[in-house]
Each structure stands twice: as C-alpha cells, then as structure tokens.
Write a structure and sequence with these properties.
The complex is a heterodimer of chains A (110) and B (118).
Chain A (H helix, E strand, L loop, with lengths): L8 E4 L5 E6 L11 E5 L6 E4 L13 E6 L2 E6 L8 E9 L4 E4 L3 E5 L1
Parallel strand pairs in A: 1-9
Antiparallel strand pairs in A: 2-6, 3-4, 3-7, 5-6, 7-8, 7-9
Chain B lengths: L2 E5 L2 E3 L5 E8 L7 E7 L6 E6 L6 E3 L7 E6 L4 E6 L8 E8 L5 E4 L3 E5 L2
Parallel strand pairs in B: 2-11
Antiparallel strand pairs in B: 1-3, 3-8, 4-5, 4-9, 5-6, 7-8, 9-10, 9-11
The chains are: A mainly beta (110), B mainly beta (118).
Chain lengths: 110, 118
C-alpha cells in the first residue's frame, strides 16, 4: 500500500477533462514538491509535471498540475486516445528519507 | 545523444546476486544524482535508491537496504546496482533515471528485466 494515494483508475471520452488525485501527508506532499509521470506499456516512464505544476519542454499544455496542502492533482484536458496510460505521482518524504511513488492510476479513454 | 542504457538483467536463483549497469551519454554525468526505480510485473513503480553526483552519498528504500548497493564511475559515465540475497519479490523491470533534484526523474533508461526464480 502506497503512502501516496491515487485512484486505481479513471476514464473519459475524447475531448473531456479528467483529474487524477494524489493524497499524502505533511511529511511528503505537505513539505515537498510533487512530480507526475506518464507510463505507457513497454516504454520508459516520462516526466510529465515537475515542481507541482511545471511542464518539461515538449509536454503539451493539456497537462497541468497543482498542489494544495497535502494533496496534488494532475488535470488532462482535451483528452486524446494516446493519453491512455498509467499515471504516477511522486515526491520525497522527509520522515522516511525516501522517494515515494503513488500506486498509479490507469487512464482509459473510452 | 542524451540517453541511459541499462544492461545486466536476467534470471537468477533466490539468494543469488546480480549487477545491473546503466551507461549514460550526452550530458555532464557527474552533475547529477542518479536513481534506480523498479516495477514488478503488474504493479506500480517503486523507488529503489539513488546516489549523489560525487558518489559519496547513497540512499535506499527499506525493502532493499543492506542487500542492494548503488555505485557509480564518473569516468565511465556509468551507474551500477549490485543486488545480493535476491528474493522472488525483487523480480521486476529495473530502470535507471537521472534525478534533477527532488524526485523529478527527467531521463529514463529502457529498463532491464530481473527475474528471481528457482
């Protein structure tokens, strides 16, 4: 069981907006930045959002991140079929002196 | 070309040892922390540990502490994961990744499969 909690799955239709949540505690999300990764089967994970809300070069602005207190969210607008993937939040935990990944959320585009 | 390439995966018996290598190219290797992250079949990503740019500092997940060792050779621009006393639950794809600062792994290798089975 992950210390960073994500819903196991979310779904949406093309063009819709979906939100994936990531819930933590004061020792991780509450005091450190959150990063988001996209993982398609058979490929290496890809950094999607860093420092809570920053997009690396090349990531479409359809992807956005936010953080409030001990929770973070990844929003995907204008959903496309190629967005179907697993999404993970991640960040440091000061109490555990470790890096944590959320359990992952499988996005299905209907 | 900026890339990471892992090698050394394979089948090993429980209790055995294996060393993974990750060759980096296209960037100033010694400037970066490097991490190992794994994904067991059908499960999510799990941080294994990381090493500072100088190689002086290392940090590990509790699940591998005392069994796994991360090292690096900056002259060869490579990072290594030495695994001892392997268990079935260590079976996973192992990725090396470049760490910008706070778990923002911006560059990943293609992964190496480690299977622990008798």
């Amino acid at each position: 069981q992950s210390v960073l909690t994500q819903p196991p799955s979310v779904s949406g239709t093309p063009g819709q907006r979906v939100i994936i949540s990531c819930s933590g505690s004061s020792s991780n999300i509450g005091s450190n930045t959150v990063n988001w990764f996209q993982h398609l089967p058979g490929t290496a994970p890809k950094l999607l959002i860093y420092s809570n809300s920053q997009r690396p070069s090349g990531v479409p602005d359809r992807f956005s991140g936010s953080k409030s207190g001990t929770s973070a969210s990844l929003a995907i607008s204008g959903l496309q079929s190629e967005d179907e993937a697993d999404y993970y939040c991640a960040g440091r935990d000061d109490s555990l002196n470790a890096v944590l990944f959320g359990g992952g959320t499988k996005l299905t585009v209907l | 070309q900026v890339q990471l390439v892992e090698s050394g995966g394979g089948l090993v018996k429980p209790g055995g040892s294996l060393r993974l290598s990750c060759a980096a190219s296209g960037f100033r290797f010694s400037d970066y922390f490097m991490a190992w992250i794994r994904q067991p079949p059908g499960k999510g990503l799990e941080w294994v540990g990381y090493i500072s740019g100088s190689g002086i500092s290392t940090y590990y997940a509790d699940s591998v502490q005392g069994r796994f060792t991360i090292s690096r050779d900056n002259a060869k621009t490579s990072v290594y994961l030495q695994m001892h006393r392997l268990r079935a639950d260590d079976t996973a794809f192992y990725y090396c990744a470049r760490d910008l600062a706070t778990a923002d792994f911006d560059l990943w290798g293609q992964g190496a499969l480690v299977t622990v089975s008798s």
